[in-house]
Amino acid sequence: MAKKSRKQQPGGTPATVALTTAGTAFTVHSYEHDPSSPSYGEEAAEALGVSPDRVFKTLVADVDGELVVAVVPVAGSLDLKALASAVGGKRAAMADPAAAERTTGYVRGGISPLGQRKRLRTVLDASAGSHPTICVSAGRRGLEVELSPEDLTALTTATLAPIGRA
Predict the structure, then answer these.
(1) pTM of the prediction?
(2) Which of 90, 108, 125, 139 falls between 20 and 30 A from 33, CA-CA?
(3) How far is C-alpha 47 from the chain's CA centre?
């Protein structure tokens, strides 16, 4: 089910290509995505047998007219006010899904913080640091990548801030 990956795999995503190019250690986990699932992240946690506080969802928000990526545990939600504050903004709202897809190059439910078409400012919830590894979307529904929060922070030049709510 899970496979170690350090080389480009056939059918790789921009996220796995970015990880491979950077020489970052990561593990790819795949599962059968159920289109009727109400929560992509919770579905991933359950399918992979991983605690929902270690599986992080990638959300795109509009902060004062700028698209920003927020990476928060699937077990909670995004605090938009905290996100705005983390990037020095005043107001934040969830981005239009079509704009998020067009800008990142990924489809909703498969947006990865890695390998985006246009690199966006990224904020990773501070709770990620309490885990040796976390899982984020690998760029496709039913595909997650597990890596250290430090590597994710370095590769995305993310700001760490308490942006998640339980």
Answers:
(1) 0.90
(2) 125
(3) 17
Question: Residue 78 forms beta bridges with which residues?
Answer: 164
The separation between the first and the last C-alpha atoms of the chain, rounded to the nearest angstrom, is 30
> Could you give the 3-state DSSP secondary structure of residue 16?
helix
CB 130 within 8 A of CB 98: no
Q: How far apart are CA 94 and CA 157, in angstroms?
A: 21
- Reference 58, options 18, 95, 5; nearest CA is 95
**Residuewise pLDDT in 10s, the chain (166 residues):** 343 433 434 458 999 999 999 999 999 999 988 888 878 888 888 889 999 999 999 999 999 999 999 999 999 999 999 999 999 999 999 999 999 999 999 999 899 999 999 999 999 999 999 999 999 999 999 999 999 999 999 999 999 999 999 8
Let me know the angle formed at the C-alpha of 34 by 10 and 46, rounded to the nearest 5 degrees.
90
